[in-house]
Structure formats: structure tokens, C-alpha cells
From TrEMBL:
Record-linked InterPro entries: ArgJ-like_dom_sf, Peptidase_S58_DmpA
GO molecular function: aminopeptidase activity
Species of origin: Paraburkholderia steynii
Family statement drawn from the similarity comment of this UniProt entry: Belongs to the peptidase S58 family.
UniProt-recorded name of the protein: D-aminopeptidase
CDD domains tied to this protein: DmpA
Any Pfam family: Peptidase_S58
Amino acid sequence: MNVLSMPQVGVWSAGPLGTIADVPGVTVGHCTLADGPIQTGVTVVRAHRDDPYRHKVPAATSVINGFGKSIGLVQVEELGVLETPIALTNTFGVAAVAQAQIRAAIASNPQIGRDWSTVNPLVFECNDGYLNDIQALAVEDKHYVAAFDAAASGFQRGSVGAGRGMSSFDLKGGIGSASRVVNVAGKDFTVGALVLANFGRLPMLTIDGVPLGRELHRRKQSATTATATKPEQGSIIMIVATDAPLDSRQLKRLSMRAAAGLARTGSVYGHGSGDIALAFSTAWTVPHEGDFVATPPLLSDARLDPLFHACAQSVEQAIIDALWSSTSVTGRDAHTRLSLLEAAPDLEQLLKRHTA
């Protein structure tokens, strides 16, 4: 546990766990591969209380910048539901994880692909090739299964699971999570976010409005005589969950607000960055079989603003959490990414200087 307290952004309060697992029914699991040049893994977000294929949850995606190789987004966009857990891994691990999802769905429902339609695996990715030997194709079916089985409401963040080999702002990135609780129409609802942060260049880094990256970049320039900054590359996957009763169209609107939280940390969604958000609700389910779908009373669009604010704040907080929670990692060809707290041992003084 880091001694230095992480800044809390925005005005809304976090849930008791301060993670996406504050949304009822949501759990997260990791499988981490950390062996010399292999620095990668799988993270699974379980969004369903019951069988994912038989009891789908409403969902929607927003592609902010589409430099990515995810699988399953087209059907989510068209049908507005999730019928598998959400998986995160490295770019070259997508196929193996998708196959593992298909096998798991068939094992639970042998009718899939025969009497019933096929299943839509959903796998997001970021390129961890700086730290991880991505050409080794180290991610296998069993790693998805392990992450799925490990899912719980209490889970690690930082350099774990899919976040093991990720870089962010030229520092160690990875898994981050946060939550916010808002009152809408007299009822409390939770919005939670989980990010796989693998984006940004150091001079861009902004924490709670403080341009921290500029100072760290100046120090780096002095130490290395570097004069140029490479363009923003990498990716970020932003998963947003809520227990508010929303349909897929409203969830599409919610997912787009993840971009506001991302921008607050300094991103401009560069050409080579894959920035994708997915939002889902646990408030109701869509049965696979049946002629009609029973929906609860949905929130009016005019009442969505607090949820939009909570989404932006949760994503911003989750990105900070990824940096705060990560530990330094050395991987392929002795490449190293330092954690934020190791790269800036005087971080507390830097933040105070700008907020005094």
C-alpha cells in the first residue's frame, strides 16, 4: 500500500470499495504472467449475476479513436447487449482469449452454434510490446479461465493482469479503478470505471488539474539532454458500469463521457492511440429466449447529467489509480518502466506546490 494518499478528483463521493465493484454484481479477476521478457496477462470483468448468454446485460460502446484490434464491438453496437464477460489482454492475445470465451459459453450452453445462434466474445486489447515479448504469444486459454475464476469484489490494481506490461505517460501504467455515487430523482446510483491505461507521453500528464508531467519531463530532459517528444501512442480501454436503469442508447451516451475523464489527464486521443469505452448496466437483463423483454422504468434523459459527471470523474480517477497503484517493471530487452511514485519521490511536494 502506498503511503502517499492518492488525490481524489471531482465533487462526488466514492463507493465503499472505491472501484467498479461498488456496482452490485460486478467482479474483477486477473491472471498475471511475469517471467523475464514475458510481462503480460489477462483481466476479466464479470458483469452478469447469472449465465451471461441466457441473461444478457444492456451495453454500448464509444470508439473515441479506433487504432485498436478488439473483437466483438460490432455486435455490441448493433444489439446493445453483453453475452460474455469482458476480457482485457495484450494485442496478440485477443484470439486466444476470444476462443476461451467461446469454449466457456459452449460448455454452459451446448446449443450455441447449433440450435441457437453463435456467441459474441468480447475482448479488448492494448499493445504491451515495450515491456512484454508480445511475439511470444504467451497468453493462452488457461489464463482467461484463471482470471475468470479469480474474479471477486476485492481485486488488485496496477501492474497486474492485462496491466502487467502496460505503459502510460512514459511511466508504468496498467489497471486502475474508481467509483462515484450520485443521487438522481431521489435515488442513489453508482457509476464505476475500470481502465487499462497504456497511453500518453510524459509532458501531457495532468493529475487533478496539476501539469505534473511538465516538471517531470524537464527533469528527464536535463538528465538525458533529450529535446523532442514522440507523438502520443498506445491505447486505453475504459469500462464503465452502473446500476442505474438505462437502455443501450442511454449507455452509449454514458460511454462517450469517458472521453471527458480521459482528456482531463492530458490525452488528446493521438493518431496512434486506441481509445475505446464500453458502458453497461446491471439494473436489468435481456433473456436469450422469449418473445418480449421486460424493462424497468428507465431514467429520463433529462436526469442523466449526474451520471455523466460521475462517469467522467470515475474514469479520471481510475487513470490516476492505475499510475498510483502500479509498481516498476523490467521486461523485454531490459526495458524498464518506473512507477509514478518511484519516478517522482517528491510527488507530494510537487502536488502541494501547485495547489497551495
